[in-house]
Specification:
Oligomer: single chain
Shape: globular
Largest sheet: 7 strands, mixed
Order of helices and strands: HEHEHEEHEEE
Distance between the termini: 35 Å
Structural class: alpha/beta
Length: 215
């Protein structure tokens, strides 16, 4: 169900640069909605920096069947391309979180492109600089996430911040896989209590860092 009680926020999806976008060919790569064109920003924007199709395809090739029936959290969701790809490939549910009104509008247009996408989705407007949009006390209502995408703005220290918030969160399943996107050359092998860096994969200037529970 799409959340209507959205949390008031200060826009922060912006990066330090304007990103020249040629997004007319951004599509769902595989699954139930394969080939469907995603709604994207018009022209140039510094609010949203979508993951390229090439990087997204490589990422989901790595994930494979892990997507199926997983509960997914898409942080700094932007257009929702990662979460929508997960829905198309069989995720049980996806929760999209962003602060930008432009991003939230695009997400809400893209979700219905996926068969049963609306029924499997929640959209939350929240300032991820301060906290995660979830309770800090365990309750029966908490459904832990199996897969988490995080694509914060580059170069502002938000990557480390979101990892620390997730490390202290109660919404991680025991088998959770957290994938954080950042620029090539950024070192995210930081000291965390529950999570550890498992591997890193780079595609052009984009790198995905894979975090898992410490064994």
């Amino acid at each position: 169900m799409i959340a209507t009680d959205e949390m008031v926020r200060i826009h922060l999806r912006a990066s330090l640069l304007f990103y020249p976008l040629n997004l007319t060919k951004m599509r769902i790569i595989s699954g139930l909605a394969k080939g469907r064109k995603l709604f994207t920003p018009a022209g140039q924007t510094k609010e949203i920096r979508p993951t390229s199709d090439r990087a997204r395809e490589a990422l989901f090739s790595i994930l494979g069947s892990q997507i199926i029936e997983s509960r997914v959290l898409d942080l700094f969701a932007g257009t929702g391309a990662l979460g929508c790809e997960a829905l198309s490939r069989g995720a049980e549910s996806v929760t999209f979180v962003d602060m930008s009104k432009q991003a939230l509008a695009l997400i809400k247009k893209n979700i219905p492109l996926i068969p049963n996408g609306v029924q499997r989705s929640t959209v939350i407007q929240h300032d991820l600089r301060r906290s995660l949009p979830f309770p800090t006390v365990i309750s029966a209502d908490i459904q832990p996430f199996d897969l988490i995408f995080a694509d914060p703005p580059y170069g502002r220290g938000f990557t480390e911040k979101i990892l620390i918030l997730l490390d202290k969160s109660i919404v991680l399943s025991q088998k959770v896989l957290i994938i954080v996107e950042d620029l090539k050359g950024v070192d995210l092998d930081i000291n965390l209590d529950l999570l550890s860096l498992d591997k890193k994969r780079c595609y052009g200037d984009t790198c995905f860092h894979f975090f898992i529970h410490k064994q």
